[in-house]
Each structure stands twice: as C-alpha cells, then as structure tokens.
Amino acid sequence: MTETASLMTALFADHASAECAYASLAARGYTPADLRLHMSSETRDRLLASAVSRRERDGAIAALVTALVTRRLPPERVALYDEGVREGAMGLTPNTLGDAEQLQQEWQTAGATRIISALLDGRNAA
C-alpha cells in the first residue's frame, strides 16, 4: 500500500482539538515531519504569525511550522475536506493498524470528524 493510500486523515473544528490530536501523535513517537496538513489561508497565516512571535520560547512550534509549510495533504483528500475546513485537517500514515485504531479513538475524543483511513477497512468515523 502506498503512503497516500494508507494515509489517515481527520477534520478538526478548532485549534484545541487539533492540538490534542497532535499530542496523541507525539506520544507515539510521530514527528512534525510525519504530518500532512490542510487549512484555510486565514488559519495558516494566523498560526504562522503566532509561531514566529513565539519561536524563541517553543521549539515544538517551530517544528510544527515546518510541517505546515512543507507537507500538505494530497489533492484528492483535500477535495473531501474543502467544504468543512475551518481550523484544518491533519493526516499521517500510521506505522501500524494498532496505531490507526488508537489514533481514531483519540482523535474522536478530541472532537475530530470525517476520519478516513484505508487501514481501518472503511470503518471511517462520521
């Protein structure tokens, strides 16, 4: 399975839910380089401005900015999320089926919607 085919993505309605989901990824050893993100231009500009103002105190923000700028969701996934993007969509390729299952549960708890992953055999969250 290609990286794009096994990509797990979700839609996040606000910064807090995306941050919670990111924390669950970091706890499993995923890094910003593993992430793919999509968000509105306004959200991207706001987050980048905030990151630039905080970059000296918070190295994690600098790493997230790198992910924001360099790794985007593939166009076919963006099309699925475009209408619903408020704060953003996040995706990565889970290392294992177990990671995918745990991340699905944690992302749902964080408030994510439209979780899509071929690894979960079509068991996509609403």
Give a description of the structure:
It is a single chain. By secondary structure, the protein is α+β, with helices and mostly antiparallel strands. It has one domain (8-117). The chain has five helices and four strands, in the order E-H-E-H-H-H-E-H-E. It has helices at 15-27, 41-54, 59-70, 75-81, 97-110, and strands at 8-12, 36-38, 88-92, 113-116. A four-stranded antiparallel beta sheet has the order 2-3-1-4, sandwiched between helices. Helix 1 (15-27) runs antiparallel to helix 5. It is globular and about 40 Å long. It starts with 7 loop residues before the first strand and ends in a 10-residue tail after the last strand.
- Compute the number of strand runs: 4
Order of helices and strands: EHEHHHEHE
| Low-confidence region ranges | none
Overall radius of gyration: 14 Å
Protein structure class: alpha+beta
Strand order of the largest sheet: 2-3-1-4
What is the molecular shape?
globular
What is the domain tally?
Answer: 1
The N- and C-terminal alpha carbons lie at a distance of 24 Å
Share of helical residues: 40-55%
Please outline the major beta sheet.
4 strands, antiparallel
**What is the typical, i.e. mean, pLDDT?**
75
How much β-strand is present in the residues? 5-15%
**Total count of helical runs of at least 4 residues:** 5
